[in-house]
Each structure stands twice: as C-alpha cells, then as structure tokens.
Write a structure and sequence with these properties.
This protein has helices at 2-7, 53-63, 126-129, 131-135, 144-151, 155-165, 171-182, 191-196, 204-213, 249-252, 284-293, 312-323, 328-331, and strands at residues 11-17, 20-27, 30-35, 234-235, 261-262. It is mainly alpha-helical.
Length: 338
C-alpha cells in the first residue's frame, strides 16, 4: 500500500483530526503542509465553496496571475507578498500604470476568520472582497466579466474551472476560487504559539514583554486579543488630529465613525511594516512610542489610548515579545507560493 501511495505523482489529501485540518501534497516522497493549529477554530468554507484540491489550485493560480489587472501588470500577490505574511512593505501599493494606492495593504494571514473585510468593515465575505481590487480604478481597474472572457481563451483555465466548479471560468469561479485559496493562509506556528502549546519556552525578556502586553497597565489585549490578536472592532488610536481618510465613516455615514479603522491582527507584525492604515509609521519601535505617548486628541479617539509612561526597558521587553508573533514556517512556506 505504501508503494502505491508513493508512486502517485500528484495527490492532495484533506485530513481532519479534532481541531486540526491538514492539507498534504504528495509528490513522490515530498510533501508540504498547511494546517489549522489545535488552538485555532476550524475554518468555515461556505456552502457551495467547500474546499477541494481543484478549487485550491485554481485560486492559487489566479492569485498570482496578472491577468486580473486591466493592463496585465499586477496581481493579488503584487500587494500581498507571501514572504511578508501576504502584506506589502510600501505605505501604499501602486495599481496599474503606477496609480497611487489609498491605503496600506493589510496582511492576509488568517483572513478566513475575519467577520468583515476592508479597513472600514464594509464587505461581509471574502468572495465579495475579491471584487474590490478588481473594480478599483487605482488597483486593477478591470471588469470581472471581461476577465472571464479572457480566461475562456486559455484552455488550461477552462479545464481547471470545469474540474473545480463545473462551469466556465466566469465571475463566480474567479471570486470563489481566490477566496478559497485565501482561506488556507493560516498562520499560527510562531514562537508564542509554541509557548502556548508548551513546545517552546520564552526567554526572560519575552516573558516580561508578554506580561506587559496582557497587563491592565497597557491594555493592549483589550483590542488585540484572542488567537488572532484582534477583536475586529473599529477604533481611533490618536494617530492624527485630522485624517485624510474618513475610515469607517465611508461605510456607515455616522459621524461617530470618522477616522475609525478595523483593529488589525498583530500576528507577523515584525514583517508587515510599515504600520497603520496609511503606512505612516515605519518601525515597530516607533509604533510602541506612539502608544506610549497617548496619541493625538482626536474627537473619536478610543478611551483606551492614554499615555503609558513606559521605561526604555519596558519598551524593549514589549518589542521583544511582539517579535515572538512571527511565524517563520508560514512566511517561508513554498506551498503557498507560485
């Protein structure tokens, strides 16, 4: 039986063991794994877009294909680089013809768990979110119906779409397959996670930083909590007195939402620089300095943002702890790359 399995050229097996889903790709004796950690909830693949090998392969191919942009110059991966936890290292990622972006590209790590998408939370599903960069004039500036027509001219895409969804590579196939691929971008094997699972120890500085992070003094975990280090709420952190970006107000039209933005995950924060919705803070140490200062007195600033009075040692401890949230296995996983 073992010889039969190893003789297969290509096979993907979905294994579900308790709270751990493992996708295994066998090519002879080589395999790669993307898994849901035991301390994470299972990923919910919506009805009609359940996980299959064919759908995952198609979504991955489209994620890295420049055909999604009007001039075929950029892809999803142009702004969401796997080595940067599927974020970007630029304040604003340029769109086609080098048109300026409007917001810092967030990490897609664990995006499967987000209850809503975009900085203002105006999109309820990943399937719908795929349409946003495609239609945005400063991003892909394309029409998904026209993209489908282009894909229909490619026999490999037609074959993959039929295998995955039993239909031509149209708008439905494009949005479903890309969102399915994105739901497998699971990051939960950092040093901190290994500590939680009692597989690794934190050093003295990291422990002190962790204690500070979860302390009542700093209240970091009031917003950055749970397995994904975010409560997905909308907050103003006192970055400016006046904002060029209206934040959640763009969606709600409620003045109490002006300059409120969805709380981001802190996972892999070491590699997702620059920070904030506009990429205006370059380093993680500068982020800590911002929160230590208490920020600017914006009318909608969260009541949790207050001067902290941290010593230099405390700032260093906190910084050291945040580095333990880097998941090197995730950012180096060749299985998730083209």
């Amino acid at each position: 039986m073992k010889k039969i399995l190893l003789s297969l050229n290509y096979l993907i097996i979905l294994v579900v063991l308790g709270a751990c889903s493992v996708f295994i790709k066998l090519e002879g004796e080589k395999y790669s794994i993307t898994k849901i950690p035991t301390h994470f909830p299972l990923v919910n693949h919506p009805e009609g877009n359940e996980f299959t090998q064919a759908r995952w392969e198609l979504g991955k191919k489209l994620f890295y294909d420049n055909i999604l942009s009007l001039d075929s110059s950029i892809s999803c991966a142009s702004c969401h680089l796997p080595e940067l936890a599927f974020s970007d290292n630029r304040a604003f990622s340029p769109g086609i013809k080098n048109r300026p972006g409007k917001r810092n590209a967030p990490s897609l790590a664990n995006v499967a768990y987000h209850p809503y998408l975009l900085r203002e939370g105006g999109v309820p599903t990943l399937e719908m979110q795929v349409l946003v960069p495609i239609q945005e004039e400063n991003e892909f500036n394309h029409n998904i119906v026209d993209i489908g027509k282009l894909l229909e001219k490619d026999s490999s895409y037609v074959k993959m779409a039929m295998e995955a969804y039993n239909r031509a590579p149209d708008y439905y196939v494009i949005t479903r397959s890309i969102s399915l691929f994105e739901r497998t971008l699971i990051s939960g094997n950092s040093k901190y996670d290994k500590y939680v699972n009692k597989k690794e120890k934190l050093n003295t500085q990291e422990k002190k930083g962790m204690e500070l992070f979860f302390s009542d003094k700093l209240k970091c975990s009031s917003c950055h909590n749970g397995f994904n280090f975010t409560n997905y709420s909308f907050e103003n952190n006192g970055l400016y007195l006046s904002y060029a970006d209206d934040g959640r107000f763009r969606f709600s039209k409620d003045s109490n939402d002006i300059a409120l933005f969805k709380v981001p995950t802190l996972r892999n924060i070491e590699v997702t620089t620059p920070y904030m919705h506009d990429g205006s803070i370059k380093t993680l140490k500068q982020v800590i300095e911002h929160y230590d200062s208490g920020g600017k007195s914006h009318v909608n600033k969260s009541s949790l943002i207050l001067p902290l009075g941290l010593s230099q040692d405390e700032k260093d401890y906190l910084h050291t702890f945040l580095l333990t949230l880097t998941d090197n296995e995730f950012i180096q996983n060749s299985y998730l790359r083209p």
